[in-house]
Amino acid sequence: MLLLSMLALAGCGSNWGWHVVDPTDARGRANLGFMVEGLWATVSLSLAAIILSVLIGTGVALLGFSRLRPLRLVNRVWVELFRAVPILVLILWVFYGLPVVLGIRLDVFTAALIAIALCDSAFEAEILRGGIQSIEQGQREGAAALGLSRWQVMRLVVLPQAIRRILPPVANQFVYVVKMSSLASVIGYQDLTRRANELVVSVFRPLEIYSILILEYLVLILLISAGARWLERRLGADQTRRRDG
Predict the structure, then answer these.
(1) Whether residue 95 has pLDDT greater than 60
(2) Distance separating alpha carbons of residues 139 and 162, to the nearest angstrom
(3) Among 2, 108, 120, 224, who pairs with 189 as Cys (CB 3.0-4.6 Å)?
(4) pLDDT class for 238, splitting at 50, 70, 90?
């Protein structure tokens, strides 16, 4: 509401050019349409990155519980390395450096996806590690006493409960990934931020364009947060029904 009020007050000034994003004006509608077209690019990159990072992070987290010291070492090196490297730096390195190292050329979507997923996988691994460690030891011992193997205990007893517990922090990470996906614009990915930048160059109205960009991200994040809360309630209700049954 505060942001909307500021925009409304700003629009009263004679030096503002809100006509460039005015939906009642033909040019304004065209500019808004050009910006909104980048929404799918942002959402698709963010969804692909969070899915890939969760898969990688799960594998890395499970390595941390291995009885083999080299596998546990892989877990620590992976987490510390990708948690320390800035996403922007990794995006640039993957896009410009990886083709030199491997002799392949990646499109902007693939380069951004790899970089964001690798960086976020370190955080996902730590989130899952905390969720697994939060499961009471008595449940593991009870499952082992029933004859379940170490892998069966993890897959059938520990992971289902851990996933419920880590849902809120994973949802927060998804919000983080959506915001960090804007960094892919530096290599030419046509997301919301890139399209806003291109529009600023053509209409020379950065305040107005970037204000609309903020609103776009705000609406997107609010929708994601609402969806995450709905999913949490569904899982909580499902857990309650199972206990009552």
Answers:
(1) yes
(2) 12
(3) 108
(4) very low
Cα pseudo-dihedral 70, 74, 75, 80, rounded to 10: 130
**pLDDT at residue 81, rounded to an integer:** 96
- DSSP code at position 198: H
> What pLDDT, on the 0 to 100 scale, is given for residue 67?
87
Phi, psi torsion values for 234, nearest 5 degrees: -65, -45
Q: What is the pTM of this model?
A: 0.85
Work out the number of other CB atoms within 10 angstroms of the CB of residue 30.
12
CB atoms within 10 A of CB 83: 14
Q: What is the C-alpha separation between 208 and 202, in angstroms, rounded? A: 13
Q: How many CB atoms lie within 10 A of CB 188?
A: 12
8-state DSSP, 187: G
User: What Å distances lie between residue 148 and 120, 132, 160, 215, CA to CA?
Assistant: 32, 17, 15, 51
Residue for token pair 């059938």: 156
Separation of first and last alpha carbons in the chain:
44
> 10 Å Cβ neighbour count for 151?
9
Span 169-183, average pLDDT: 94
Average pLDDT over residues 195-208: 92
For 91, counting Cβ atoms within 10 Å of its Cβ (0-12 exposed, 13-18 middle, 19+ buried), the class is: buried
The CA distance from 126 to 56, in Å, is 12
DSSP secondary structure letter of residue 15: T
Q: Give the CA distances from residue 243 to residues 135, 161, 202, 236, in Å, rounded to whole numbers and listed in that order.
A: 17, 13, 60, 11
